[in-house]
# Entry
Amino acid sequence: MKISSSALTIGVDIGGTKVSAGVVDSDGNIISSDRRSTPASGGVELIATITDLITSFQSQYEIAGIGISVAALISADQGTIVGAPNIANLSKLNFVEELKKSFSLPVVAENDANSAMWAEYKFGNAKNLNPVMFFIIGTGMGGGLVIDGKLFKGANGIGAEFGHMNVQPNGIKCGCGANGCIEQYASGSALMRYAKEEMKADPIKAKELLKYSDASGDISGATLTTAAKQGNEIALSAFNKQADWLGSACASYTLLLDPQAIVIGGGVVEAGELFLNPVRLAMEKYMPFAGTHSLPKIVAAKYGNDAGLIGAADLVRG
Ligand SMILES: [Zn+2]
# Structure
């Protein structure tokens, strides 16, 4: 069923702690939104929460489709959860089938990073570029890829999981079960590890950094961003290490995909050019066939927490 371009759709973004939903128009604008806590028991209760949100929007708007964005791996044949590290009782759940029991509307379900990638490609900072790839950098590291106007999924739905490329044989153990994934060197968790290592090695510099600490007296990603903007040595060094790894990954992926743009999203974007510029420099430093080809643009994501919701709402338009 083809959805008309003037119709409104609903996007639902399911994260480990929050379920955000919104009514979205065909230009990616959120007309109305609401959020709930992700039910701790997941599964059946989660479907009830989503159903409730959708029903409430339906009482106010004429809705033409539902797009689900979820922090989980989804099978390539649509809808079945293959793995969800942060949400309970999702294994084998099929969002598309469950929601079609209650709503006679088109429904799609997509991984959150893929949904966010789609929002950036359709309406954001990678609009009309081809191919485009996306790194979403938070505690972990997700990925997305659009080639010739289509979200790339691969044969089993694990395509474009860019955070899990091996960059260090027998390296640090990763949550995915493998060792030495780029996630362990270029994620927000890695940034914190670099900072803590340097604090341990140099207590005087550590004191300087702790001036920026939060109420609990500990450091966080936000602490490091603020401190780096003020020129703090440890914070800048930690960001530079993270950027160096990410830049080297960008160089490798450029050889694989030759993207026009690499979009970087997630919490790390708060650091802005302070982070993106070292990523560009590292990518140039590690680039094979340097000087013989143009380089992808490294850009910050336009959308923050709404990216998954906006992308999923558009994906149901088919
Ligand atoms: Zn991994």
In short: The longest strand covers residues 30-37. The pocket of zinc ion is lined by residues 164, 174, 176, 178, 181, 183 (CB under 6 Å).
